[in-house]
Amino acid sequence: MTLREQLREKISAAFYRHGLLCASYPVPIILFTSASILTCCYPLLRLPLPGTGPVEFTTGVRDYSVPSHEPQGDLGERPDWYRGPPVAYIQQVLVKAAVSPWDSSLVTVDVFRSPLGRAFSLLEEIRNHVHSDSSGVRSLETLCLQVTDLFPGLRRMQSVLPEHGCLLVSPGNYWQNQRELFDSDPDLLKTIQKHEPQRPAHLDLLFGVPGKYTGVSHYNKKKVVTYTMTLVLSRYDARFLGSLRARLKQLHPSANCSLRDDHMVHVHFKEEIGIAELIPLVTTYIILFAYIYFSTRKIDMVKSKWGLALAAVVTVLSSLLMSVGLCTLFGLTPTLNGGEIFPYLVVVIGLENVLVLTKSVVSTPVDLEVKLRIAQGLSNESWSIMKNMATELCIILIGYFTLVPAIQEFCLFAVVGLVSDFFLQMFFFTTVLSIDIRRMELADLNRRLPAEAGLPPPKPGPLRTREAPPPPRPSPHTITLQTPAFRNLRLPKRLRVVYFLARTRLAQRIIMVGTVIWIGILVYTDPAGIRTYLAAQVSDQSPLGDPGGGGLPPHLGVAPVFRGGDPTSTLGINPAPAPTPIPDNQSQEAPPPSVPQITWGAEDEEGWRRLSFRHWPSLFSYYNITLAKRYISILPVIPVTVHLSPQEAIETRHPQDTKHPPPSIPKVAADIQTDLTLYKVAALGLAAGVLLVLLLFCLYRVLCPRNYGQNGVTHGRRRRGDLPCDDYGYSPPVSEISPLLLRGHSMDIECLASDGMLLASCCLAGQIRVWDAQTGDCLTVIPNHGGCWEQRDGWESVSGAAETECLGSEAHGSSISGDGLSEGEGYPLRRRTAPSRPTLFTDQPDLTPLIDTNFADQPPSHLCTPPREGFDFGGLVERAYMEHEPPSPSAYPSPSSASSSPPSGAHSVWAMELRGNLIAAGRSSGKLELWDAVEGSLRCINEDGVSGITALAFLNNRIVAARLNGSLDFFTVEINKPLGLLQYRGAPGRGSMPPSPCYSSEDVISCQLTRSVQCAHQKPITVLRAAAGRVVAGSQDHTVRVYRLEDSCCLFTLQGHSGGITAIYIDQTMVLASGGQDGAICLWDVLTGSRVSHVYGHRGDVTSLVCTTSCVISSGLDDLICIWDRSTGIKLYSIQQEVGCGASLGVISESLLVTGGQGCVSFWDLNFGDLLQTVYLGQSSDGQGVRQLLVLDNAAIICDFGSELSLVYVPSVLEKLD
Amino acid sequence: MPRLEDHCWSCSCASRIETKHSSGANWLAHKAEEMMSIITSVLSNAYGSLHDVRTANLIRRGLVLFTVGAFLALVLNLLQIQRHVTLFPEEVMATLFSSAWWIPPCCGTGAAVVGLLYPCLDSHLGEPHKFKREWASVMRCIAVFVGINHASVKLDFANNVQLSLTLAALSLGLWWTFDRSRSGFGLGITTAVLATVFTQLLVYNGVYQYTSPDFLYVRSWLPCIFFSGGVTVGNIGRQLAMGGVEKPHMD
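Predict the joint structure of the above. Result:
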């Protein structure tokens, strides 16, 4: 037991170290593995290529002896299969017969009737030939291959093929080798063609030459008939064959015959695969693929599922190749059919280990380093992997001792395969896995620090196509519903690969190159083989392939080349050999074919080459003899020339022969015959081409996105970018929603506030408009006329109350004191505080000695004009603004436009809040105004401060105003019922204010400054938020302060940022998040003032922050949206947006995020980070960025869009999310 | 359309939601089931009482098993014929499919019975089968089964005893690798015995014939094949039953 545990520990430790190694040096290890795979596969190059047909080997006749069974070392070119005796020796007697001279009185039938008749006498001659010498008497009967029954089920062949005796095939078999039957046959052609549909045709089988060269037809212009008698011998007896050859030559001398007879060709046949063998094979492969499919689909939680699945399959396949290669290297030639045992090997080796590894690694803690994760995952599974491996090896070992050769071989392969598979798993797959997991983390890193990491910023992936030239849209103001990307974040990566493939058409090119290489190899190894092979496929009439051409140089040029001297053989018997010259022969011979000449060409030497390469296997298969993996020896042909006189021909005529009509269109028919093959080839080639194109097309469609390059025109990049969703073939409906455009402002919208029912907006011109948030109707317009509330009745007011809050703008508070006015006039320009650059105020003098930071000591008195610091912040801000204006991306008003704003007295609104039907507007002059949103009447004005109000918070009956000078003013809104007068200076009465923010128009509303915290911050306050009874102010001075709303008491000063505060979020649950110019985001506990977490997420300022119950969403100047886990502070993922986007954020529901972009707003699925859809606000989307975005209670979104407001309802999105 | 979207959602959520055997987990069965559902709907219309979900499910599983069994029988029969005939002229193929047409249906029926019996027996014995319950393993099992058949066909053994022993070892290995349950072993043995007896009877009555019988009237490796076949079909049946049980849950 202890031993076992020790072993286990050791194995685990070893695997751990190995995992560290693999994850540390991925590239060298992968290179090393690839090299070893290639090395091990190298011996495979020597194995013959599949699909090259039968192989030949030529030896001389004279010194021929039956090769022995044992391999005899290296015998030069001798192939492996040339061992032992052949299945049979084939001796062909090639007969060319013609009636000469040709007489015009002869009919067409005479061309072949009497020549064929001669076959019977020749047959007789051969059968009766006896050779006797000292060693005894030998006849054909003793040498020939004795056959028994035909294969059962071949009844139809019984009439033509010999049974129970010598296998001797000749045309005479048509007539059972009986002359009488032949003579009484009225129509020879009919008899011959009776079996024509057979393939290979009986004609070929019995004639021994391809049908069209036999000359047995009505249209034979050469008047020469060619046929062979095929003797199949089981033993080779040189003397008998020699005497037979001499005898036949003596009887029928061939005058001009110069055929060589010193070579015999051995033809080795590959194993044939018929349907019967194919079905089980295909079945096993189908099962194999199903197995692989079901296995790999279990891979999960990795960066690229497909990549890993591919790696797994590659691992298994290359381990198999390696095992075969190694076995070959050590002299173990595979005798098993590789294709057959392959699936079983895969199943034995299996993908389990790979899957187990993956699962184990991905289940390690995510926050660990990649190295450690890999190492841990490996060591966790080490014991089970080793155990399985040992078990499998044991089983295989047992199998090895069955002592059955085939099983032994299989086991040997399996052992080597298992070991190499283990090797590959450990080195190749583990490394790939580590790369994959590292990629997952790198992807996050990339987003966090694009420049620092030295990596190019990620290409705008499909998810983020915001920047681009806006896609042409069909109609203005329509929402292009993006195909919802219901997919994880890692999808785009995978898609990029697909896109890459599609863009470069890599797949097609690889296929094409592969095909070309394959064909090239085939052509190279076998010059004549391809063509003959193809021709044989087209029609079985073509000659036996010449595949092993490398081995027999003398035959290389034989088949296709028209030898010199052959053209003269025009009327000659055109036997097997003359393939190409047919048309030539015809044209030359056509005029006066009086004397058919029988010529012998070099082609006749190996007439059998013209036969289908299946000729011999099929002949033998009829007798249940297989040639698969065996060979036959073909002896040199014996040429026989027969000349017949016209008288002979006429004598042998059958009475009906003359009744045949003379050939009417012989030439055409012949042409047709020869052309037919050509047409067949052409048609087949065309069909194959079409098929190939279709196949490529299908592949293309599979690999490429559906509308790649097509819809791009109409929908632009965005459309294309969303194609990931079509992964499952699902293309969602495109529904178009028009955003509601609220027009009326003459200048850009500056402030925006809403309380759900009403919507208040304020433009640069200072005009405030109140809208119905449901319908988009403009309810009230409050013009900017310098606080002249007397004129307000000139504007129609309908109903509702609205209030706006403008966070981004700095209100320039105006105080009653006179110097405030002059100061206020000094700042006609406005600047947005949120994205203020950190460098803005660096030259600011240190004011700390001037400021009394002891706030607690300050009495809550109404110090309207406190002992102000002697430093003019206004001038500083203005100067800084002038300097830094251009870089700010959003459309700030230019100085000229600012100067066109109402002159003195009509100060622009810097901050606005809306609660109930009261609009609180903070002006640049420091004035705080309360307007009735419904009636558009000014209810109250407070001019206690002179410094511009930069931010406002309106909660219950309190208003908090942050001023440019860093002070915080707390106001209380009071309502005095009875008085009908406008009493903007009402007496301060505390506590009478009802909490409900409903103010009737009769009420007299007063706004009382309850407390002013001077120098709440040492630098301008940039953000102000109020919730849950707390007011939180963030400032340029790197701190966040939390005040209690009731008593304006400063509870905490939160320090932790190293830059100015730019964004704050607080909600009812007292969660406080702050973001600063340093790119950091801090989460605070408001109750204790402690920092919960502190993360760095952005390279620039954090521009906005939103929290949901589970996560924190931040956006920064680096156009990145980061989603953080709220409890742990771990970044879940980030979304790279396009340049100039992402300053505004909103959360509609727990899982729906909305961001503003250039002329559009985008909806994101928070759970997965997928872009759900993008809504375009207007036609010209570029240039106009959405800077502010408010989410209303009814799931509508209001955002500014230049001088317009957009109200967007997103019902469809919500439906899906709910 | 909502269905499609649901589908999409479930796909995208698949990585998060850990559905071990989600609806997509067995597309093979699904494809077959989809085809079968048409037939079953016709059947259930004919027998109005069969609207019961359980019964329909049972019929579906039975049909899938029948198809698998018949197909395997056809393929393996081809393999067996190769044992005796090395080359197939086309004429033989025609007679092959016509003569022994009843073999695939018989085997299919047997497969359906055995495949339904396995999960049934499991539930009766109260020991649900937990070992390697996934389609990849089932596929592997089928592949090994075909491999055993292949081996029985292709390998040249010195004598039949050796062949039979090897096959017996392989069959036991199959059971050990993929099943490892007592009920599976028992049912496999029962199947083997019954099927062998049945075949003996058939051959005795001259319905069928083996070329060179060495075990009474049949080949001695037949029980091994039947045993491994029983285990394989039982594996499929169990997997199908699991999918079938889970499906109503998902709905």
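The CA atoms of residues 5 and 86 of chain B lie 54 Å apart.
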